[in-house]
Amino acid sequence: MKNLKTLNMCTIFLLSVLVVQVLCDNFSTINLPEEHLPYYFANFPKVAEKCSKDDDCPYKNNLNAEKCWGYEYNCKWNKQYSIPPCPGDHKGWVKTKYAQQTTFYAQADFGYVKQQLREMRVLCEPLFPDDSSLECSEHLRFCRGRNIMLNFTKLASREEPIRYKMDVLSEGDIGGYCDFYKDKLDENADHISPLQSWGPEMRYFTRLNRRPIVEGDCDVVIEKPTFIMKIDASMYNIMFCIHNSSIYKICITNLFTSMLRKIKYCNFKFIQHFKINFF
Ligand SMILES: *[C@@H]1O[C@H](CO)[C@@H](O)[C@H](O)[C@H]1NC(C)=O
Ligand SMILES: *[C@@H]1O[C@H](CO)[C@@H](O)[C@H](O)[C@H]1NC(C)=O
Ligand SMILES: *[C@@H]1O[C@H](CO)[C@@H](O)[C@H](O)[C@H]1NC(C)=O
User: Fold this and answer.
1) Per-residue model confidence (pLDDT) at position 105
2) Ligand 3 atom nearest to 247, measured from its CA
3) Gap between the terminal Cα atoms of the chain
4) Which of helix, strand or coil describes residue 11?
5) Between vectors from CA 213 to CA 21 and to CA 166, what angle results, nearest 5°?
6) What is the DSSP letter of 68?
7) Which atom of ligand 2 approaches the CA of 151 most closely?
8) 252, 222 Cβ separation under 8 angstroms
């Protein structure tokens, strides 16, 4: 698993990773807003190098800008995408203006993403390429999975609404075929309330006896990177709604979980590569 790139919850970055995968022969697959290009090339120096050597690469002006979003481990404060302005008096909150800015950065900006990435731990480890995997940050606040099966069969016959409910999934409704470290997951399933973490759902993760996608156990396989979000307040109920009542068991090859409030820096206008499923 060490070679498994940890990804952050920000779709901008995710988009970049995808682009790298499909980049083999054509820069036209880089479909990013102009403003994002310097950050993209800074994060993927190999692609930047390829571009610099390729006469047909149209992005030469964006190759050498020293920029970073702010979650990268080596990102300098003055090079990051934005430095929180924090207007107004800091007194009463923190000692200095800088402390006010770094607090904002750590709690509501890319600093938060950086911390989540640092915390990522493997909870279910693949042994072969087709296997599933699951990794989460502390308290299961953010998870990333591959080849994960979600079984929504029970929801189809559920009468009561699921908003703010913690029994949307039950034992075995989520799982994968991998080496499952259940004790590690249980240890982190300690923030059990509806919008606090993915604990209420992930605590039911089970090791499957076979590979769900290979064995055809899923009614639908979603191959595009997929975010499942918990959306605060009245919109929470769209998270697990089933669009097509004949679809019950869904496999997701690239799963990311997030809370909407934590990915406010992602610009959804640009997520063309994704199918976003609001279950
Ligand atoms: C690159 O992609 C564009 C648009 O998809 C296409 O028109 C062009 O032929 C491609 N070039 C190569 C070398 O594949
Ligand atoms: C999905 O859940 C339903 C209802 O609990 C169960 O009957 C079925 O066996 C499950 N399917 C799989 C593949 O786990
Ligand atoms: C629902 O899914 C089934 C099976 O994939 C498909 O045959 C049917 O057309 C779908 N219905 C709608 C309304 O999308």
Assistant:
1) 87
2) 2
3) 28
4) helix
5) 100
6) B
7) 1
8) yes
